[in-house]
Amino acid sequence: MLGLRLVHLRLSPQAFELLNFMLRKLAHVTEYGIFALLLYTDAGSDAQRLWRPRHAALCIAAALAYSLSDELHQRFAPGRHASIFDCGIDSLGASIAMLAPYLNSKPWRGIKG
Questions:
Q1: Is the pLDDT higher at 20 or at 112?
Q2: What is the C-alpha to C-alpha distance for residues 64 and 14, in angstroms, rounded to an integer?
Q3: Which of 40, 82, 84, 100 could connect to 71 by a Cys-Cys bridge, CB 3.0–4.6 Å?
Q4: CA-CA distance, 106 to 85, in Å (whole number)?
Q5: Given this model, what pLDDT does residue 9 score?
Q6: 94 Cβ partners below 8 Å, 6+ apart?
Q7: Sign of the CA dihedral 111, 106, 41, 55?
Q8: Cα 15 to Cα 3, 11, 38, 59, distances in angstroms
Q9: Which of the four pLDDT bands, split at 50, 70 and 90, describes residue 47?
């Protein structure tokens, strides 16, 4: 049993590996989601309130391209390995993040419910 003394938990090695895997993948989703949102927003622009699907798609594509380049870099870094699965997780994070500007767009804000 592996101990997480800080939070008073004891985990089996298998549970610890699963938790470690899930947290790393959640980090991928979060980091590429934030990256896509930063690409989408224009600082101080009123256009932020408008849903721009083509711009959102370009942001997702840019996040995917960066993810692919990062995985290519990892292929040549000692102790690292490249994973196309991670690219899928990264693009999922970027896609989920595009829900924020979509739901914040003017048509949605006017609906009361």
A1: 20
A2: 31
A3: 82
A4: 35
A5: 73
A6: 32, 33, 35, 36, 59, 60, 63, 64
A7: positive
A8: 11, 6, 34, 35
A9: low
pLDDT (tens digit per residue) in 70-109 = 999 999 999 988 999 999 999 999 999 999 999 888 665 5
Specify the 3-state DSSP secondary structure of 50: coil
| CB 67, CB 86: distance < 8 Å | yes
**Residue 52 pLDDT > 80, yes or no?**
yes
Confidence of residue 61 (pLDDT cuts 50, 70, 90): very high
Between CA 35 and CA 112 the distance in angstroms is 31
Pull the structure tokens for residue 107: 């048509």
Amino acid making up residue 29: V
Which residue type, as a one-letter code, is found at position 75?
A: R
Paired tokens of 20:
């470690």
